[in-house]
Design brief:
The complex is a heterodimer of chains A (530) and B (299). Chain A has a domain at 1-34 and 89-270. Chain A is mainly α and 530 residues long. In chain A, α8 runs parallel beside α12 (240-262), α14 (286-323) packs antiparallel against α16 (341-373) and α20 (437-453) packs antiparallel against α21. Helices cover 75% and strands 0% of the residues of chain A. Chain B is α/β, with parallel strands linked by helices. Chain B contains ten helices and 14 strands. In chain B, the strands form three sheets. Chain B has a six-stranded mixed sheet with strand order 6-7-8-3-9-10, sandwiched between helices. Classes of the chains: A mainly alpha (530), B alpha/beta (299). The interface between A and B is medium-sized, with 26 and 32 residues.
Chain lengths: 530, 299
């Protein structure tokens, strides 16, 4: 076949440049599964304790976070694993696949590498097909590894069929979002656009799942995440959503190949807008320059955060009535009857939102390194601005973004909660959101430190954020040792409205972030620019 | 003569912008054709159509008599291409990339030829591509192209980023492949390079071929620069039809002479005592500038 000539060779070559990245992703995925299984088997051996957890989980706020409660009547370890680990696992493998596809399709086309390859006797679709094979192989491995681990480590409640199904839906999510990305890579003429469209689809699918889980069931069938969640492994083991998702993926892949075959190299199907002729006065200032660099993704993030805040906020009001008078839950989960369960959920959701808002803040800071890698920074540094001004501009903007997003999403979250009739003060929620800002600053400080001293390892900060997220998300479910919990800056933040504002924590975290930033700058001011 | 590249009235639009308007030219076997024009004139667009990377809206383009879009894979087995801006995978070495490109041709890698080229271009193939400068990345593509036994070589500003010495190496390599009977299409900004290498040129401006033919033919269309010093003062030269842009400097007269009016000029100066007469041959640059200026003037 002419259009696929040399696909095999390109694929072998792709494997050679990708194997390390994929290996790390697979190890990360395996670790995620192991952590889940081992923790549940260890911590929730007692059926009574599981049943109490089941009742606590069965409310809109928790369902918005983890997914619709499944297998509640007989909340086995398998059911518990399916219920709490599935959605986040989906997100993990979807992100892996989105990045994989963009990296191996539109990015290389944008860089002009594809032009060189396609000028050789290779088929017009060979490069894209090679990326598809890589996507398939990776997700088949995800499925096999996950299923294998679940079979090996699970308890009696985790049937082989359920384990296989769990593995398959992990891989299927990756394949489906990879297929979506294959299409977005044809729509947008640049890698960033393709990635943003794909992540947009993931975000939308998450929000649809929340809406679906809070009652409007049709939405959870539209959402790929909701669709595959409905397989309910270890509980009902429905396989038909897998076939639906597989069918959709195949259609999307064929569509992507069709579009790729038709279009010109370098072109996208969505039009590019033309820009301004002159730089505005604001753009010419260092901070204005940084704002311009990150503006579009920030706007997208802000909109996404407002949506997420509203989605979470609108379910919180329902919780109260459901829990009222349920002494069993209140005793076991809250321990203290004075503390409202709803407040607890609210604190947890605020934490999750704060973590989400940390991502764009970090992106602003990491852009400094990104610009350096693209060799664009030297022009700025060689200009009239000192390194302090440049480094400072990124840090300051990153700090402002953290504050702005926290205000925005606390307002969205609190506003929605109040609108739904839950008795809470908006100010209280905004203050609770503010309590997280010092912890977010510590993250930015870590990024600054890495940029200053270990520029090649800057992405480690994402791993650190992921770790902090695990601690927050699963901290209530698994019993992590205190010392591990303590490594996350977010762990120390007072969980308002349950806890009170704590000046010591606020000042300590702010102090740490300042020290990290200054030390980071010291490294940055004396190291070579790549 | 056997035509290897034939472009016939191809058109291409990007949105509302018309990038190419009925562009036609051809390249014969064993011939090197220079393809010149200002930025944005449509050189790269034409080349990308030739390589089947983008699809022409109208007209026809063939290499070896085969359609550039439909038979791209077959055609590319006999074509080597070097773009003006080479980007490579940052975590692979230059040597790995060269081998990869060669292996995709399906032909066995001629190791000696490759090593010889690496030496001639003074290239270090053991470094990771992220460490290469623009010129060095360019060399990766050049070495891969010249190591391949192709029938047609297409270069799109191949020497951008190379130093003058490496430029010479490129020119020598280009001559070698011509001697072996291959054809070359060279798009370039460096007119002296085109002038030295090329048998024929095609000049493109605003998506249209405005001039094409052998350099010898084209020179007839241009003017030579004459520097003249005579004992007497010649005022009447200003009003002669053959003289353009007459200026005087320290008793010398400098003007542009229409190449096909040489005879008129010689008859005209016969009566005078000539102290100095210099004639500079028309440069491709002059030819180019004439078209370029008419763009600005809106002729």
């Amino acid at each position: 076949m002419q259009t696929h000539a040399q696909t095999g060779r390109i694929f072998r070559f792709t494997l050679r440049k990708e194997w390390l990245k994929l290996l790390l992703w697979l190890i990360g995925g395996a670790f995620y599964v192991i952590m889940g299984v081992v923790a549940f088997v260890e911590v929730y051996g007692d059926p009574l304790e599981r049943q109490a957890m089941a009742m606590a989980m069965q409310n809109p706020a928790m369902e918005a976070l983890f997914g619709r409660a499944i297998g509640i009547d007989n909340y086995t370890i398998g059911a518990m694993y399916s219920h709490t680990m599935t959605i986040l696992g989906f997100a993990l493998f979807a992100i892996m696949s989105i990045l994989l596809v963009v990296r191996n399709t539109r990015s290389e086309e944008e860089d002009g590498i594809l032009e060189l390859i396609q000028a050789l006797p290779t088929g017009r679709l060979a490069h894209t097909t090679s990326a598809i094979i890589l996507l398939l192989v990776t997700n088949v491995l995800v499925a096999l590894i996950s299923a294998g681990l679940l079979i090996g480590l699970g308890d009696a409640s985790m049937s082989t069929e359920g384990a296989l199904l769990t593995g398959v839906i992990y891989g299927m999510t990756g394949l489906l979002f990879g297929a979506i990305t294959l299409v977005t890579a044809q729509l947008s003429s640049n890698a960033r656009g393709a990635m943003m469209l794909a992540f947009g689809a993931l975000g939308l699918s998450y929000v649809f799942r929340i809406i679906g889980d809070s009652g409007m069931e049709v939405f959870s069938w539209i959402s790929p995440l909701g669709l595959l969640y409905n397989t309910e492994p270890f509980v009902n083991n429905y396989w038909f959503p897998v076939w639906i998702a597989l069918g959709i993926s195949l259609v999307l892949i064929v569509l992507a190949l069709f579009l790729k075959h038709q279009r010109d190299m370098g072109a996208g199907l969505l039009p590019d807008r033309s820009g301004r002729r002159h730089a505005s006065a604001f753009l010419k200032t260092p901070i204005g320059f940084v704002v311009k660099l990150v503006k579009t993704p920030l706007i997208v993030w802000a909109v996404a955060m407002v949506f997420l805040g509203i989605s979470y906020g609108s379910v919180i009001g329902d919780v109260e009535g459901l829990l009222e008078g349920n002494e069993v839950i209140e005793q076991i989960i809250a321990g203290d009857p004075d503390i409202s369960m709803v407040d607890q959920f609210m604190a947890m959701i605020l934490g999750v939102l704060a973590m989400a808002a940390t991502i764009p803040s970090l992106q602003v800071m990491l852009r400094l390194r990104g610009e350096e890698k693209k060799n664009r920074l030297e022009k700025v540094i060689a200009g009239a601005h000192s390194r302090l001004i440049i480094f400072g501009s990124f840090i300051v903007l990153s700090a402002i973004v953290a504050i702005a997003l926290q205000i925005l999403q606390s307002l969205a979250f609190g506003g929605a909660a109040v609108a739904m009739g839950y008795d809470v003060s908006l100010v209280e929620i905004i203050v609770a959101g503010f309590a997280y800002i010092p912890a977010m600053y510590v993250m930015i400080g870590v990024a600054a430190l890495l940029i200053g001293w270990l520029p090649k390892l800057t992405s480690l900060v994402w791993l650190y954020l992921g770790f902090a997220f695990m601690i927050l998300y699963f901290g209530g479910l698994f019993d992590f040792p205190e010392i591990i919990n303590g490594l996350s800056p977010f762990y120390h933040v007072p969980q308002m409205p349950i806890d009170d504002w704590n000046w010591i924590v606020t000042l300590a975290l702010t102090g740490i972030s300042l020290v990290l930033s200054v030390v980071g700058y010291l490294g940055y001011s004396r190291r070579d620019i790549d | 003569m056997e035509k290897v590249i034939e472009i016939n009235a191809i058109e291409k639009s990007f949105g509302k912008t018309k990038a190419l308007n009925k562009v036609s030219f051809e390249v014969n076997k064993g011939e090197i054709v220079g393809f010149i024009g200002p930025n944005g004139a449509g050189k790269s667009t034409t080349i990308r159509i030739l390589l089947g990377l983008i699809k022409a809206d109208g007209g026809s383009a063939t290499l070896f008599g085969k359609d550039v879009w439909k038979d791209a894979v077959d055609i590319h087995k006999r074509v080597a291409y070097v773009p003006g801006d080479v980007n490579l995978w940052p975590n692979l070495t230059g040597g790995q990339v060269i081998d990869l490109f060669l292996s995709m041709r399906g032909a066995k890698v001629d190791k000696e030829r490759k090593e010889e080229l690496i030496k001639r271009f003074e290239f270090d193939p053991t470094k990771k591509c992220r460490a290469y400068s623009k010129g060095n990345r360019q060399k990766v593509a050049l070495i891969a192209a010249f190591s391949a036994e192709a029938d047609v070589y297409i270069f799109d500003e191949p020497t951008a980023g190379l130093d003058p010495l490496q430029e010479r190496v490129f020119q020598r390599c280009a001559r070698e492949v011509l001697d072996k009977g291959a054809s070359v299409l060279l798009s370039s900004h460096i007119l002296s390079e085109v002038e030295q290498l090329c048998d024929r040129v095609a000049i493109i401006r605003q998506g249209e071929i405005v001039e094409s033919g052998s350099l010898v033919d084209l020179r007839h269309l241009t003017r030579s620069q004459i520097t003249l010093k005579t004992k007497e003062d010649i005022h009447t030269i200003d009003s002669q039809d053959f003289a353009h842009d007459v200026t005087r400097d320290k008793g010398e007269i400098v003007f542009q002479l229409d190449s096909d009016h040489l005879d008129d000029f010689l008859r005209f100066i016969q009566p005078y005592t000539v102290l100095k007469l210099e004639s500079a041959p028309p440069k491709l640059e002059d030819l180019f500038m004439r078209h370029y200026e008419s763009t600005k003037g809106g002729v």
